[in-house]
Amino acid sequence: MKTREARDSFEKLKQNLRNKTLPRMILLYGEERYLRLQYFSKIGEYFGAKKGDMNTDVYEGKNVNVGAVIDQAETMPFLAENRVMLFQDTGLFKSGGDQLAEYLQTPPEFDVFIFCESEVDERCKLYKTVKESGLAAQIDEQTRESLQSVIGVFLKKEGKRISVETASRILDKTGNDMAMLRSELEKLVTYCMDKDVIEMEDVETICSQNIEDKIFELLDAIAEKNARRAMDLYYDMLALKEPPIKLLVLMEKQYNQLLQIRLLRDSGELKDTIAGKVGINPYFISSYMNRASRYTSEELRSIFERCIQTDEDIKTGHISDTLGVETLILSFL
After folding, report:
1. pTM of the entire structure?
2. Which is deepest, 60, 105, 220, 240, by most CB within 10 Å?
3. pLDDT, tens digit (0-9, with 9 covering 90-100), for 230-253
4. What is the extent of the structural domain holding 9?
5. Quick one: 38 and 97 in the same domain?
6. Rounded distance between C-alpha atoms, residue 200 and residue 186, angstroms
């Protein structure tokens, strides 16, 4: 699904929820797990779902018996308007959902089907059926601007104020992970209980360092040819259960940004212009430019291309992810 279409589907979901016009068949999917679960709960509440209630059926995991689901869906609700069927990470939108798709062509009017899935194949019959008959809302990582708005709204409710720069620093530490962002905001509010304004030093003291910060530490160690530090950082991140392929993707992203910055700087662009074109907060562009200055544009292009090649080698099975990323890092030292 294209980014614009994905954004529109999520906006439609929010609008329908505000207007109380939700369809009775909804799929929530996409990269942003925290928001998916939040809206899964909200939509369930809207239709009167309650775990343990005889009119609410919950199906979790990949061992769902579709025949039993259909039998239950045929059972009229007891003293209620709806029978709410909740599905979470069933895998039916990857395989095994054709029978349910056929059933959903003409389900009973009292049934509500709400799916919350981390894996979806948009080509499958069940996806197409839900999209045509209800709403398939793709909830992906939110933009930095929308997350800054989330920070402002949350802190306003808590009677706190924060500057744009300080809010941006929170996002530097949490990334786009909304669950982590919510956790860090709650910690900040508790820490700043006696203060009206949350300041930069509060963020630096309280907020946990996110994985992108650790990747930058890794890039610094590589630039300094500090092999011991670089490998220690890599193994530390593996110990935190970070998938090697995710670390590689973040390395690709940051080396690509450094390459763009180097090229723009070499062409004579000013600092603020570079920040805007690369999509980096101007408050932090100087540190990015300092990192980029350690390399020539040719060196950064070579590093970025080696990251891409390693990514391809891992995905095609030529090398394991852990060894592939380790070998890549060592090749830079």
Report:
1. 0.62
2. 220
3. 999 999 888 878 889 989 999 999
4. 3-138
5. yes
6. 16
